[in-house]
Design a protein that fits this description.
Phosphatidylinositol Transfer Protein Sec14p
């Protein structure tokens, strides 16, 4: 089954953060990861990040992008840890050192608990690029719970 990911993962039109384009991941209730749409999703994400790099370069001659992830409905998306690790590995290899900032908005208590565990394996440079936002305020990761 073909699923249109363009309303879930897209580039925020005509909006930039410090000259960098912004990739939006909005996990709405219509998005569900399955084995069938997994390859299509990976291709879509790579294309969006590539297009984002092109826009940043065109806008301000910068080779970086920003990511904003709305975690409000993350549990409905059925994203597996295996998929997230696989996708992270692909993006890290394809877009090494291209992430400017990643904003994780509206994290659930479960997500914040998981993040406390996985943040220990994230390198310091990347960790400093991840900003968790709850109720419009940045959460310092040492006080995340």
């Amino acid at each position: 089954m073909y699923m249109d990911f363009s309303k879930t993962i897209y580039i925020k039109e005509n909006d930039y953060l410090d000259g960098r384009s912004i990739v939006i991941f909005d996990c709405d209730s219509s998005f569900v990861l399955t084995k069938q749409n997994h390859p299509h999703l990976i291709l879509h994400i790579i294309q969006i990040f590539n297009d984002s790099m092109i826009l940043s370069k065109k806008q301000s001659n910068i080779n970086e992008f920003c990511v904003m992830v709305n975690l409000t409905n993350i549990s409905k998306c059925k994203l597996s840890i295996k998929f997230l690790v696989h996708m992270t590995t692909i993006l890290k290899n394809a877009f090494q050192d291209k992430l400017y900032k990643c904003f994780l908005q509206h994290p659930t208590m479960i997500f914040r608990s998981i993040y406390l565990v996985i943040r220990n394996v994230i390198d310091k440079e990347t960790k400093n690029k991840i900003i968790i936002v709850k109720n419009g305020n940045q959460i310092i990761y040492d006080t995340i719970l």
